[in-house]
Amino acid sequence: MGALDLVVVGTCRDAVEAEIKKSALEQEDIYCAIENEGQAGLTGTFDIKLLVPRNCKEKAIEFLSTHEV
Questions:
Q1: How far apart are CA 26 and CA 50, in angstroms?
Q2: Radius of gyration of the chain from Cα atoms?
Q3: Which sign, positive or negative, has the C-alpha torsion 19, 23, 25, 29?
Q4: How far apart are CA 17 and CA 45, in angstroms?
Q5: What are the b/e assignments for 42-58, b being 16+ CB within 10 Å?
Q6: For residue 23, with 0-12 CB atoms within 10 Å meaning exposed, 13-18 middle and 19 or more buried, which class applies?
Q7: Phi and psi based region of residue 60 (left: phi greater than 0; alpha: psi -120 to 50; beta: remaining)
Q8: 0.85 cut: is pTM over it?
Q9: Do the beta carbons of residue 45 and residue 39 sit within 8 Å?
């Protein structure tokens, strides 16, 4: 496993929603990075990816599926 072996656990179209989900995951002690957040004038065009370490994938998916964030 590399220094940061990250996997996608969800996508959003809105940067604010992505930040809220990231914060919620981090409150659960799950590191989360966001990819494609800076879309500028193309907001909503591309998926914003939520990335977590591979070893936290199941916990993150479970959390996101059972909590309204």
A1: 12
A2: 12
A3: positive
A4: 15
A5: eeeeeebbbbbbeebbe
A6: exposed
A7: alpha
A8: no
A9: yes
State the DSSP H helix or E strand holding residue 18, giving kind and residue range, or none if neither. helix 15-27
20: CB partners within 8 A, 6+ apart? 69
Strands (E), the chain: 6-12, 33-35, 48-53
CB atoms within 10 A of CB 4: 10
Distances (CA, A) of 3 to 17, 35, 47, 53, 68: 27, 17, 25, 10, 31
pLDDT tens digits for 10-52? 999 888 899 999 999 999 999 999 987 555 455 556 789 999 9
